[in-house]
Design brief:
The structure is a single chain. The strands form three sheets. Strands 2-3-1-6 form a four-stranded antiparallel beta sheet, covered by helices on one side. A two-stranded antiparallel sheet has the order 4-5. Strands 7-8 form a two-stranded antiparallel sheet. It contains two helices and eight strands. The radius of gyration is 18 Å and the shape is extended. It has about 120 residues and is of the alpha+beta class. The chain has a single domain (about 15-105), classed as RRM (RNA recognition motif) domain (Alpha-Beta Plaits, 2-Layer Sandwich).
Length: about 120
């Protein structure tokens, strides 16, 4: 959900998104807003939730209007302690070559193999 309570997804065109990793499952957009607002105009804060449980997935996206402000937030907040955890703040990466996010950690996307069997059984000869 957005910090600003929009009903639909925000217009993120022309914004600079930061990925905030290692937040607690109880951290809210209202908790993050004062931290990030110090460094510039925050357009949106989004904390993804698990579809089944509704619980936070342990990471957030903070969007700024200006790149310089986003960069300043990365420099000042990366490694900072929030709710007893050291958060990691970096520019978000999008697209097919971006890294995947799994439960608040970055996991590399492995290249898909073509024509290989996923079976553990040895091939008959």
């Amino acid at each position: 959900m957005s910090h600003f309570g929009r009903s639909g997804p925000p217009d993120i065109k022309d914004t600079y998104s930061l990925l905030v990793l290692n937040i607690t499952f109880r951290t809210t957009a209202d908790d993050l807003f004062p931290l990030f607002h110090k460094y510039g105009k925050v357009v949106d804060i989004f904390i993804p939730r698990d579809r089944r449980t509704g619980e936070s997935r342990g990471f957030a996206f903070v969007r700024y209007k200006y790149a310089e402000e986003a960069q300043k937030a990365v420099e000042k907040l990366d490694g900072r302690n929030v709710d007893g955890r050291e958060i990691m703040v970096q520019f978000a990466k999008y697209g097919p070559n971006a890294e995947r996010i799994s439960k608040g950690r970055i996991v590399e996307i492995l290249p898909k193999t073509k024509g290989r069997s996923r079976s553990r059984s040895p091939r008959p000869r």
